[in-house]
Amino acid sequence: MTARPSPATAPGGSRRAPEATRRLRPRRSCLAVPGSNPRFLEKAQGLPADQVFLDLEDACAPLAKEGARHTIVDALNKGDWTGKTRVVRVNDWTTQWTYRDVVTVVEGAGHHLDCLMLPKVQDAHQVIALDLLLTQIEKTMGLDVGRIGIEAQIENAKGLVNIDAIAGASPRLETLIFGPADFMASINMKTLVVGEQPPGYGADAYHYILMRILMAARTHGLQAIDGPYLQIKNVDGYREVAGRAAALGFDGKWVLHPGQVEAANEVFSPSQDDYDHAELILDAYEWCTSEAGGKKGSAMLGDEMIDEASRKMALVVAGKGRAAGLTRTSTFEAPEA
Fold first, then answer.
1. Choice between 320 and 228, residue whose per-residue pLDDT is larger
2. Is 80 helix (H, G, I), strand (E, B) or coil?
3. pTM confidence score
4. What sign for the dihedral angle of Cα 236, 316, 169, 128?
5. How far is CA 200 from CA 130, 156, 190, in A?
């Protein structure tokens, strides 16, 4: 496995920006927008997606890519992306477009960019190469070194086999993303419907893939994002597929159509009851371990025993609820002595 640089140090020995990457930004809904379509870029600014990624890869025809770079720069600099994580997906390193994608976008709109998404990542060196290029541009342009994060998209068997090294390749990494369509092709999966189960297999054909991505992400403190569901008018189908990823612990899913945004935000947010319960667990545990609560390591919350493990699980749910903007509807009352 490739040794990873210290999060505090950029390639070349210079100090990174004081704001560490790997911020756990809300990414329940990650909206894909063709970088060559100004109308779609404008419309995306008003949608309630947590993240918007402006696409220079599959959504742009080869002859449109150069112009799309400048369209994206203009949209980032002049648009209102308030409340959204701003990402650009560049082309993968096997193409002739990648370096120019990065240079044009970061030099032109680096101050208004949160992350670059790198597709078809197959090994750690591809992430390291992007980190090095970003560092050179940031130094040249006077940007904070290390502020722009990287999202790595896993889209084939080789990428999944190398995922631990990929996840530890750069302190810029914030997410690992499952790219189902290319992945299905790479392993010869017997289906043409992205996101649906292949015929003839009685279990969940994606379970191992999703869990492998999730384990690597959590090992390295990253978020895990599920890829697109292409039947954009089938919102019920989208909810079902998104629900499986959310149940495993994924942080969000791609959306390809405005009609999927609300579903993603709902599926990847805790319910009001679960959020309230998580906050009550945190309050109850804080009280029972305090002097006033008797300095106990465990306590009862109603009919439920809670302890340190309960607190850790509650932190996850409460954190997602807070990020989703939920408001508590219950309060903790310490039991009478």
1. 228
2. coil
3. 0.86
4. positive
5. 40, 22, 9
